[in-house]
Amino acid sequence: MVKIETTEITKIKNYAIENNIPIMMDDGIDFLTTFIIKNHINSVLEIGTAIGYSAIMMALSNPLLKITSVERDEKRYLEALKNIKKFNLEERITLIFKDATDLNLDDKFDLIFLDAAKGQNINFFKSFSNNLNDKGFIITDNLSFHGLVEKKEEEIESKNVRSLVRKIKEYITFLEENNSFETKFYHIGDGISVSQKK
Which residue in 71, 84, 132, 160 has its CB near the most CB atoms, within 10 A? Predict the structure, then answer.
């Protein structure tokens, strides 16, 4: 396990809690950073920067790692810029202020990390899988969605949440049936999948 905990990291985590910004759970980030080290990942495309927490943690886990991260929310994007600067990681983390659904990239990456609008996961997967290096990986977070994916639909009160859970279930089925990738699911953090290009 990679354990990186500094005062600045704690401040970012506290800011996320106070401002209701979803960031990866501790065991989820441990899984991700350990995965990067074990699989010699040197380039990452992250869809959904939020305030830069996971990008920073990934960069700190591997001094060779370069990350391109995309965020559509201006307030979060600006906060991420500030946080990345505090760690002097501007040379290794490139932030793009844009909606990922409108983004076209030519670059290739060892890993694509999907942690943005859950309802768009299938679109993101299809759009960006062309940006993967051979044998590259796509990791997706929040497949349990706070345990709601495992619940019966009628047990979820909010219509919007029901719709989102339905889309996450569709995405899980999409991964299971995708012949170009082999996917493993992990009950870690808020539910993680690792899909490797065959």
Answer: 71
Does 164 reside within a domain?
Answer: yes
Q: Which domain holds residue 77?
A: 7-197
Average pLDDT over residues 150-172: 80
- The DSSP-derived string for 153-179 is GGG---HHHHHHHHHHHHHHHHHHH-T
* Closest to 68 (Cα-Cα) out of 49, 88, 87: 49
What pTM, to 2 d.p., does this model score?
0.91
8 Å CB contact between 109 and 133? yes
The secondary structure of residue 143, as a DSSP letter, is S
Residue 168 lies in a domain: yes
Alpha helices for the chain (secondary structure H): 7-18, 26-38, 53-61, 74-86, 121-128, 159-177
CA dist., res. 58 & res. 34, Å (int): 9
Summarised one tens digit per residue, pLDDT across range 127-137 is 999 999 999 99
